[in-house]
Amino acid sequence: MKQPPFDHSLDPATPGDWQALRAQGHRMLDDMFDYLEHIRERPVWQPIPRAVRRAFDEPLPRQATSVEALHTAFLRDVVPFAVGNAHPGFMGWVQGGGTPVGMLAEMLAAGLNANLGGRDQMPLEVERQIVRWMRDLFGLPDTASGLFVTGTSVGNLIGVLVARAAALGADSRRTGIGDAAARLTAYTSAGAHGCIAQAMDLSGLGTDALRLIPMTADYRMDVGALVEAVAADRRAGRTPFLVAGTAGTVDVGAIDDLQALADVCRREQLWFHVDGAYGALAMLAPDLAPRLDGIGQADSIAFDFHKWGQVPYDAGFVLVRDGRRQLETFAADAAYLRRDTRGLSAGSPWPCDLGPDLSRGFRALKTWFTLKAYGTERLGRMISGTCALARGLAQRIEATPELELLAPVSLNIVCFRYRCASPDAVNAEIVTALQESGVAAPSTTVLNGHLAIRAAIVNHRTTAADLNALVEATVAIGHAITAAWRKAS
Asked: In which domain, by residue range, is 253 found?
């Protein structure tokens, strides 16, 4: 064969080029270690200057740029203006902080560049081991299947799709969901995450088929109201098929009475799904696990390792009690995906038979590293510790006359506000000012029609000192804002 006139490989061309890249790689790794080691010295978040934004408004590059120059740009223009969830002062939404171990595992996975859609490969055995571990953790049978996904939003969608296929039959994949689907109804708490409604939308069942069940005073689904809603739909000729319970609600971190929901689902022959986005991993903490009683009776569970599990983004996961149901929902024959008993085509069923993705990254490796490097006992202590910090923050708020606690602290989320004449407007401004100060980054939510400052204590790096700084800054900023508004009026 005639040799082509140029080398089309993207690898370094000579041993010297490899050595230069190796040295640059070590500098990049050291810089990220420095970033994590000294992260407390940085602001949690800071606004992006206009000039930095403009630097990324450039045409598609046609010529090469050195990795050294790209790394310099990353350190200058990207790192200082990230969202900040690795920082101990980040308390907005529910986001894990990641770990150095997870970062290293992600580097290894990227170097291996494995596609975990299928084939007979050891990376799939790593994922399958985690499936077995999670089956054991939640008390599911050996028939349960599991799958890594981007996050719980996709995990919840898979739960709805499998429940839909179970209700309508596997033939519905070929014939469409048809008229029978128009009668299907699902149920979840009024405090459930919006991705449950989105899953109903994407599944073709529509959000009108989702009943939002009222909550009790402690923000849990009202089981009595659920029973009444199911009965009313049956009387109206509809077909209840799914209940989605929540383990750690998005607003306040409440856990639905999962055992009671499991009992209702068993009695009414409904699919029981649990959205455990972050709260499900409370199973790792012996003092918290009893509050999840009933989760082992779920037909499907979705949760994230990248929240309380501290695995770097992204690492969502879904379990389905009856793996056969998941296969019936997603598996498809294709000549280019032929299965065999030998060679690379062995080892089925493959992950692409359990979900919509054929191209899948090696999310399992960073999760495997995290579980093995730290152990479930240490991870459980960390989870318990964040809840203890949240209780301490609630006590500090109750002891501070300027502040008011707005909801019971169930797990690790604390909702409160600054007391004043115009609380919604003032507290919204306080949160923005806190974020811009770089001291702390809480978020907001609305409880009983009132805006709340919402502090989610998820990061393993957060300490009582960080929470004290949040309280002190909130009071100081509140005083300054109300004083300025009084002067202006």
From this structure: 115-333+340-361
